[in-house]
Structures are given as C-alpha cells and as structure tokens.
Sequence to fold (791 residues):
Amino acid sequence: MNQTLTVPVAGMTCASCVARVEKALKKVPGVVDARVNLATEQATVESTALDAAALGAAIERAGYTVPEQQIKLQVDGMTCASCVGRVERALKKVPGVLEAGVNLAAGTAEVRALAGTSAEGLLAALDRAGYPAHLPAGDDDTTSPRADREGWLVALGALLALPLVLPMVGDLFGQHWMLPAWWQWALATPVQFVLGARFYRAGWKALRSGSGNMDLLVALGTSAAYGLSLWLWSREPDGMPHLYFESAAVVIVLVRLGKWLESRAKRRTLQALDALRELRPDTANVRSAAGERLVPLAELRVGDEVVVRPGERLPADGTLLEGRTHLDESMLTGESLPVAREPGDIVAGGALNGEGLIVVRTTAVGTETQLSRIVRLVETAQAAKAPIQQTVDRVAEVFVPAVVVIAVLTALGWWLAGAGLETAVVNAVAVLVIACPCALGLATPAAMMVGTGLAARRGVLVRDPQALELMRQVRVVAFDKTGTLTEGRPQLVAWQAVVGDDESLLRDAAALQAGSEHPLARAVTQAAQQRGLAVSTAQGVRAEAGRGLEGQVGGRRLRIASTRWAGELGVDTTAAAAVQAEGRSVSWLLESPAGRADPAWIARGWLAFGDEPRASAAETIRHLHAAGLRTVLVSGDHRAAAEAVARRLGIDALRAEVLPADKAAVVAALKAEAGGDGRVAMVGDGINDAPALAAADVGLAMATGTDVAMATAGLTLMRGDPALVVEALQLSHAIVRKIRQNLFWAFAYNVVGIPLAALGLLNPVVAGGAMALSSVSVLANALLLSRWKPR
Fold:
C-alpha cells in the first residue's frame, strides 16, 4: 500500500526548479510519484516505503534545502533499555521523522523532523506503542506530583504486604505466624491487580508490539507465583498449604518502591539543569522616558535599558551603560570570584549583581541569551547517546526474550528432573523477577546526565557527548596560539630610550597615540595610565596606513613608526634586534629636529609589544605532560613569535606560519602520528580554527572566541582559561569510569543473578528485592559523580 508524505522545500525560484526537484525525488527507491508546488514550497511524495531522510538527501543533492524542526516530548511508562528501542522505533515510523533519540533517565524524546510534522502524530504513535506522552509544559516541567502519588501507592502496598512477610520473620524466632489462605489471598489480590496493574498494561502493550520489557517479566513472574498459590490452595482448601502469595505481593511492592526511588534519583540528575534555569529572573526593571516599570521577562526586547539593583540577577545579555559593580558569573563560566564590570563591558543574563546599581542595554533576550544557549546545549548533550550506549541498546533488544527463554528452560529442567511443578515454577519466577534490563538502560544516560550537568557548572559545555567519551583517549593536544594560550591582545612588554629617558619616551608615545584605536596604541596608553604618567595632547595627528602616526607634541614633530618605516627613513634599528629575535613586534618613536624642511629623523627609542601567555597556560602544559600527553602549538604567526611562546610554556612541538586552510591538514598529520589508539584534541578560538576543530577527534573551543569555532567543537570552554582543558580531560576520565562501573554492575548483576535463580538458590522475594535495588544502585552510583572535584 502506497503512503503519501508532504515535504517542505526551500530555495525554489521557478518552474525549472520544480522539475529538478520532482526528477530528484522520483529517483529515490520506492517513490511512485512526486508533485511539487512552487507556491506552497512543498513536494507531495507517494511511495511504497516512505524514508524522509532519503527524500531530504535527494532534494539537497539537487541543490535545495529541506527545512527541519526539533520536537521534544515527555514520555511516560519507560522502564528499561528495551523501552528506549521501542519508543525510538515508533517515532521513526511516523512520516516526516528524520531522527529520534530517547533519554531513559530524563524520560524524554528528542525528534528531528521535517518542518510541519505534527506533534500530535508523534504523540499518537507513542500512545499506540504503549507509552503515553505529552509536550513539556515548559522549562519547569516536572514529575513531582506523579512521584508523590507513586510514593503513596507504594506505602499502601507495603501495608498490605507486611502481614504476608511477618510469618517469614516469625520463622526466625521459632514462631508460627502463618495467616489463613483466604487472608493471604485477600491481602495479595489488591497488590497484584491494583498496584501491579501498570505491569500488566505495559507488558501487554510490549507483547502486542512484538517485544518485551521489564514490566512483562514482572507481570509473568508474579502472575505465575499468584496462580501457583491459587492452584495449591485449591488442592487443600481446608489445610495450611505453603503458598506464594507473599512472593507475588512483595515483588510488586519492591519493584514499585525501586521505581519510586529511581524517579527521585532521576530528578536529582537534572538538578544542574534546573539550577541553570533558575538563574533567569521572572521580571525585568525597564527604564524609559516615562520612568521605570516592571515587565515580565517575555516582554523584554533588544535595545531596552534595564536597571539592575544590588543582589538582583541580570535578566538578559547586554552592554553596561551606567554604573560599576562586580558580577558573580560562577554558574555561567565556573569562575569562582566576582568579576569587575564597568561601562562598555559586555554582561551576561543570569549573572548576580554585586554592590552597584547598574543600567544595561539588552543585546540578546529570551532564547538567544548566553544562558539559554547553555541550557539548550546541556539538554541536547543529555538527550544524545554516547557510542557505548548504542552497544548497550543492541544488547537490551534481545535481553527480555532471552530471559523468558531461560525461565521456560528453568521450569522444564526442574520439572523433568523430578523436582515437582511447585519448585519448577518458583525457580522460573525467580529468574523472571531478578532479570533487570532497567539497570542496563540507565547505566550510561544517568552518568552522562550528571556528568554533563557537572561539566556545565565547571565551565565546560558539552555539545557532543562522544567528545567526552573520546577525551580520555587523547594522546596529543594541539593548541592555537593567539587568544587560546595567549591573551589575544598585545601588551607593551618593554621599551628603551636611545635619546633621553624611558619615562619621557613612554609619555610622548602615549600622547601621540592617545586618540588611536589601534591595538598597539591602546597598549601604549594603557601602560602610561598604569604608571600614572601625565600625558599631554598631541596636535595635527595623521595616520600613515600600515606604517604609523605623525603629529606634534609640545611643539615637537614626532612619529610612531614600524621597524620597516623607520628603516626606510634611514634610522638604525639594530638596537632592538634582541627583542625582535624573541618574536616581539617593535615600534619606534622618532623626532625631527626643529627648523628642518626635509627632516632627518632621529630615534628617541623603541617599544616592544607581545601577546603574553595566559596566567594558567604554563601550568596547563605541565599538567598535560604529567598526564603523559604530547603538546603541539599550531599557529599562523611568524616563526619567531610562535617559538618564543612555545619555549616559554614548554610545548613539545611547533607548527608555525600555518595558513587557516592548512590547520586541518596539520591535525590530520598529528592523528596519523598518534596511531590508531591515540586521539588528537584541538583547542582554538577563532574562525580560522574551525576546520582544525572539526578535523580533530575532540575539538575544544574557547567561549571568548567566535560562534563558528564553538559550533564546530564538541566541547566549549566557557572561560578563556586553558586550565579547563585539564579539567575536561579529568572529567572525561571520571564520567567514563562511572559509566563502566555502572555497566559492570548491571551486567554482573544479571550474569550472576540469573544463573543463581535458575539453580534454585534465590527465593523470588529476594530476587525481586535485588532487582529493585539494581537500578537504584546504578543511579545512586551515578549521583556520586556530582561530588567530583578536579585534581
């Protein structure tokens, strides 16, 4: 039967575009017919097997684009890794869906679909698969009421199951507290069919869709125990036969208790994200000609002037117009100390204002603020799957059917061995209830959620979870120089007078350049201000493009000249040869003797500039060397400057004078040198670093750099601090170690527990308790990661 799908197409301008798109679509396997409407910019495709991704790829190959949208859903009823696979398959079957990813720990699904894909269609597909879902109400969407109701149900079930357990306690003291059979039945039945109803519903829906899950195992196991008890009771209606009502009831209570504890633990894994969301105030104090007024945050617009009082949080990104203060940006950048801000500085929404009343002109509001982008990045990272999780998902697909087969074989084996039907069923029940795909499904996402939230608090934003997993395998770290290992702005590092004294040299150079916006000029004026020099006003200043400045200071004719210009003017520049050999940029202050129509310029002295290494750069390189990593400096700067920085910081190797287009080739060469097991990380901040960041196994971008670099890198360092590279490396080791611990215990638990149950060495009650404990222990272990501190 043919299916029809409407695909949006952007970029068409005429009838020939229509024909080209239709031709491209008809070449896709399975497409019966394709009709394109230029006015609506849509293609209607009829196909025997719709594949939205293949259709989109065909349109893009034809030279057009396919608009997409992201849809987030809150999914209820998922309990284990097999549920994840079933939800993803259900979503991918919906026409228009390109990709679907499910996060079991968060109970969410992220869907990438063609623009115009209906969210209602996705919800209906999940409902048919047995997983009711809804669109999140907002950032504060929470499951707390549901969790509270779950707690009350568990408490009620425990009260009903307690009298059934008391005889087991009495046996320890030689007391016979066994209840009559009908009392056991009366207490166990509400637990079995009211508290346990969710297992029947979810198990039936799983079975109907041709797969299995944890709910099916619990439903089968407890029903077998309950049914066996009824059968034994029917054989001795007036006696006191040994019944297994307590096994069925207690297993259900323990599993529901485990799920309740699990849901509480899951909410804790989201605390880092909640803490980021809470940085946004609900209102903003907007100043206008009519005075100040309090407006909801949603009504704030770019260009508004916002008044922020001491102790308040900034409602949006902006530029500081009035006032001076210190801002606490720790939740955004990981910087522990408040940062001084003054007029002209860029400030971020969510920062906590310190002691001053300030006025900020907003430059980004709502979803475009830095804080909102951070929240989206963390959400995306938590929703994405690490490569190791994909392997676990494949195991989970066959886990439940395998357990059911083992349970059946266990029952047959014991029965054929002559142990009797009762023993055979009890041991099969133990196999069913001890098997836990939940722990397998939660092992990786729980650790990743805690880890990515922790990384965000530490100032490391994770765009690609695979980067965290690969970071621990890095053997070579390549650094860009300017703006990454260095401050990215020139500073006056030395100056020396040839004629006169050093102080007058700096004073006159600052006077001549006071009105210039050139980075070297700003460095000179800043140095003069720091030393408290009184700088006079220059007259008749004019710039010589690419050469320097000329003007008059105190009636004297002066020039600031580059070394090349000074040489062209006949000035001997050998006095600065030593600092130039260190990679410094040198300017000269020249003076013309008075009364000369064709002046011969005399050198007053030289000024040397350098882009100084960041304060933590040398220590970062030492830490990386101590961890056994090789460091490489990849710079487009001239060799002398790059060599000077590499030598000062102790970097192992240097690639200098590298063109932006060639940086990716340098990274590829480093990867070849590292071998198959060694990974290469690249740290950069500029547009010219983007190809290298993409080519590296792990790209780390400085948030102080360009958006292009951050979009290309897997990790973003929110402070301009190379030390975060070391933190990211250590955090990667901690997260992967936690994932491996979780997976080890999840697999070991099943590998050990299932054979013990099959051999008759585990009571169903003990098996149920162990099963409930397994997923809770995995989450608890993941939460321990939140205590991590860098070494």
Q: What stands out?
A: The chain is about 50% helix and 20% strand. The CA atoms of residues 476 and 680 lie 5 Å apart.
